[in-house]
């Protein structure tokens, strides 16, 4: 019975000794640094490129602008970027002077914070010539010798 009482008593004494033992203390340091410099401005949102297809209603080569009309958006005016890629049929380099009112065009553009539409890509597709149908074509007529018939009156 002595051993049963001795073990818990020894454990209690040891626990009190550890609890009352001095522990090293450390000063708390502030790791947060503050800067007097202003926070950097957020990066401006990059303009998202959009596209539209329609008919040219105005071309201003001096002002470097065009107006395009389509059923979805109505008529909108686009400034042509100095770096805009301008083509005819996607492959032939062109200038704004190559475009005319009534042309069917594809425009890739961006919109800035003020709402200005700027064309970065402009292409017009020239219609393919209509095929000539067989009924409209005039085939070469072969030369057919004219036949003349002469009849002799019957003898009386």
Keywords:
OB fold (Dihydrolipoamide Acetyltransferase, E2P), mainly beta, 32% strand, 1 helix, 156 residues, five-stranded mixed beta barrel
Description:
The protein has a domain at 50-124: Beta Barrel (OB fold (Dihydrolipoamide Acetyltransferase, E2P)). It is built from one helix and six strands. The chain has one helix spanning 2-20, and strands at residues 50-60, 65-70, 74-88, 92-93, 104-111, 117-124. The radius of gyration is 46 Å and the shape is elongated. The termini are far apart.
The count of β-strands is 6
Give me the strand/helix succession.
HEEEEEE
- What's the overall geometry? elongated
CATH class of the domain at 50-124: Mainly Beta
CATH architecture of the domain at 50-124: Beta Barrel
Largest sheet report: 5 strands, mixed, barrel
Strand percent estimate: 25-35%
Number of helices: 1
Kindly state the percentage of residues in helix: 10-25%
For the record, what is the CATH homologous superfamily label of the domain at 50-124? Copper binding periplasmic protein CusF
Class from secondary-structure proportions: mainly beta
CATH topology assignment of the domain at 50-124 = OB fold (Dihydrolipoamide Acetyltransferase, E2P)
Radius of gyration over C-alpha positions, nearest whole angstrom = 46 Å
Which residues form runs of ≥5 with pLDDT under 50?
Answer: none
The CA-CA distance between the termini, in Å, is 176 Å
How confident is the prediction overall: mean pLDDT?
79
Strand order of the largest sheet: 1-2-3-6-5
